[in-house]
Amino acid sequence: MTFRQFAFNNVLRNKRIYAAYFLSSLFSVLVFFVYAIFAFHPGLSAVHPAVSKGLHFAEGIIYVFSFIFVLVSMSAFLHSRKKEFGLMVMLGMTNQQLRRMVFLENILIGFLATASGVGLGLVFAKLFLMTAETVLDLKEMLDFYIPWQAVVLTCVAFLFLFIVISFFTVMILKGNKLIDLIKGSSTPKKEPKASAVLSILSFLLLAAGYAIALAVSGAMVVAAMIPVTIIVIIGTYFLFTQLSVFMIHQLKKRKLLFWKKTNLVLFSDLAYRMKDNARAFFFVAIVSTVAFTAIGSLVGFRYMSTTSMVENTPFAMDYISKYDNDDEEEHIKLIESNLADFPYTKVAVHIKKVSIPSLASEYVPLTGIISESEYNELAKEAGQQDQQLELTDNQTIFLYYQNSTSEATEHVESMDLEVDGKELNQISNQGSNLIRTYDDYLVVDDQFYNDIEATELESYYGFQVKDWKATGEVGEQLLQEMDVAETSGYGEDFRYASLGYDWMELNQALGATLFIGLFIGAVFFVAAGSFLYFRLYADLENEKQKFAAISKIGLTDKELSKILTTQLALLFFVPIAVAVIHGAVALTALQNMFDFSLFKSSALVLGSFSLIQIVYFIVIRHNYIRKIKSYL
After folding, report:
1. 356, 367 in Cβ contact below 8 A?
2. Which runs of E-coded beta strand occur in 322-421?
């Protein structure tokens, strides 16, 4: 058997340990390759100019993170195999041969992960492209193509990464002595200690960080972001390294709890495991928080943007015509003909422009007057019956434009005005988003309206369509037929807007960002789960020997399962629970900044990740307990 065959067989013999490392590396390669497929796709760059750049930027983030992830993972593997390395050195293997063996093993794993990741990416490329079509709400299909540029970039980038990582792992082995290798992880551990001062400091830092994040609002959220992040990170580190151990020691002092059934075994080992895994838990908590917050922010921002657009656009289509627009009649007929396949209702408001003298220094003269009946009909068709008005004689309502995102402004509550020599009594103010000219108007009684001579006329038409989302392509076609800019809908004497088309464009633009963020968040979350898996199985041999000894003095299978389940649950869910709390506070701060409820989107993201973690825990628990019991 050659030395290369020996290294290859070592990988096969340690397939249980290398499985998670291989699968996680494969996942990183696969995600990187999928991004490369999209980034180089000839049809995707036409969707939005920034999409391709964003995908390449995401690749860079994943690549840097993959480097850190693979390096830390390899360090965990080497630590768990110290006894094996020590035995090889005792049997005559030189340090140079040991380092060469580890180098070859890592290169082999890296090559297989890269080849498998690219292979899976090619097999499921069309499925990924179809998923992108749905997420980005594309109008045209993304055809399958031979992504040779993506293949070359992925293979070169990750083979280089694994070669560099292999050299790093060789350097890690350099300083180890034979006695340290032989002892491995069986070296007696000192009693873990925790500082009461640092434990209290951890609690105070987290409390202060949460309080500041939840107290600030508006632009202050951005200003507080960096200091709050630093405070919470430091508090989280001390939480796992100090406060967790301190709390376990306090629980052990409660004799009624400590001596109850199997709690003696549970608590005696828990402090050691929390101390040993503190840095891993800290890493998992921070990485998971980044994943939760990033995806939650993107999902929340998309939900907020689309919801605000729908709330602030009462009609499926708007058409605004100025007094000198000769194409008004032709355009209205054009809209009606394009909506022939959709059940729709049309409502119109004719605005008279008149000159109103200023009767108070704080009052700005208005020039637009609309009739009560037309405004009430507009409110009825928009489903805003509570906005309808009742006026008599010379009464008027000051109607100012206000939507869900605009700030409330102060206006004069009542005032006597004069229009064409006739008195007009303003009785109140009312905010409304029904007339999307974004101007302010006076609503008057029909008789008063008919008696007014207009200097200019302006018309507003609203077209209500129940299934307005299906009118996106119709809206785009009308923009082209009216020969106006798709980004604004403005002509020389008119403006046309389609809610369906605007909603489609916004979803497409935000979908690209969400698509990029989802994959990056998924990589982070998988990496966090993998670290928990690595730390768990690194101590498996010691756990087997410990429970084998305890079982000889009467530990039953039921008690063993209970102890292991409790330990695993604490190790799995404590860092994730911390990350969920961090993420919830961060998303609440984001909600305060935009003054918009993001509860649904935040609960969806955090709930989805938590559910995935629960499923992952159930699978790992089953396999872990089975391995312990099979040894016994």
Report:
1. yes
2. 344-353, 368-371, 395-401, 415-419
Centre a 10 Å sphere on the Cβ of residue 605 and count the other Cβ atoms it contains: 24
Output b/e per residue, 375-393; b: 16+ Cβ within 10 A. Answer: bbbbbebbeeeebebebee
Alpha helical stretches, state H, 253-364: 255-258, 263-276, 278-311, 328-338
d(CA 315, CA 523): 41
Q: Which two tokens stand for residue 479?
A: 């923009």
Looking only at the bridges linking them, the beta strands covering 456-465 and 395-401 are unpaired
Structure tokens that stand for 112 in this block: 């297989």
Question: What is the rounded distance in angstroms from the CA atom of residue 356 to the CA atom of residue 367?
Answer: 6
d(CA 216, CA 205): 17
Contacts of 113 (CB under 8 A, 6+ apart): 22, 25, 26, 29, 158, 162
Q: What is the pTM of this model?
A: 0.73
Residue 17 has pLDDT above 80, yes or no: no
Residue 300 backbone class (left: φ over 0; alpha: ψ -120 to 50; beta: rest): alpha
Report the range of poorest mean pLDDT among 226-240, 281-295, 321-335, 482-496. Answer: 482-496
Q: What is the pLDDT of residues 263-319, one digit of tens each?
A: 767 777 777 777 777 877 888 888 788 878 878 887 888 888 888 888 889 999 999
Contacts made by residues 564-570, CB under 8 angstroms, sequence distance 24+ = 564/621, 564/624, 564/625, 564/628, 565/621, 565/625, 566/266, 567/266, 567/269, 567/270, 567/273, 568/536, 568/617, 568/620, 568/621, 568/624, 569/617, 570/270
Report the alpha-carbon distance of residue 598 to residue 107 in Å, rounded.
Answer: 46
- pLDDT greater at residue 295 or residue 442: 442
| CA separation for the pair 264, 140 (Å, rounded) | 64
499 burial level (CB within 10 Å; 0-12, 13-18, 19+)? buried
Q: How far apart are CA 46 and CA 568, in angstroms?
A: 49
Question: Which pLDDT does position 556 carry in this prediction?
Answer: 77
d(CA 572, CA 581): 15
CA nearest neighbour of 477 among 494, 452, 496: 496
Q: What is the dihedral of CA 112, 113, 115, 118, to 10 degrees?
A: 170
Structure tokens, 82: 């110290």
pLDDT reported for residue 538: 65
**Whole-Å CA distances, 298 to 49, 565, 611:** 19, 35, 20
Pairwise CA distance, residues 534 & 451, whole Å: 83
225, with CB counted inside 10 A (0-12, 13-18, 19+), is middle
Strand partners, 349: 460
* Measured distance CA(496)–CA(94) in Å, rounded: 79
